[in-house]
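Reviewers of the previous submission asked for a worked example of the structure-prediction workflow described in the proposal, so we include one complete record here. The input consisted solely of the amino acid sequence. No template or homolog information was supplied to the procedure at any stage.
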Amino acid sequence: MSTPETARFVRLNVELVIEIDDENALTKAALERMAGDSEIPAEERADAERTVTEDTAEALAYLVDPFDLIGDVPGVELAQASWSSEEIDYDPDSPDWDLDEDDDASDGEVTTG
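From that input alone, the workflow returned the following structure tokens.
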């Protein structure tokens, strides 16, 4: 049985494999969001724009925000988040890509998908 002290923080691990079918649209969306982001210091803006233009995975990482995943969940506040993206070789038929392979009902994890 969990007490509020032991259940206060929960680590949520999410792994997504995303197929990019329009790199230009993705890059354009990242650049548009960046243009409206007043929190990017001017001295860093050119480097950030170059990064999302040259690397589709970086453009995706710029557009994905963990807060968006839990922002509307009642009773939850994001304490810490980190995320990254990378281009990968993906074969959906390969057993290496079985997302359920780490499931272990005995450790208290909940998996949906």
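The chain has five helices and no strands. We consider this example representative of the routine output the project will generate in years two and three.
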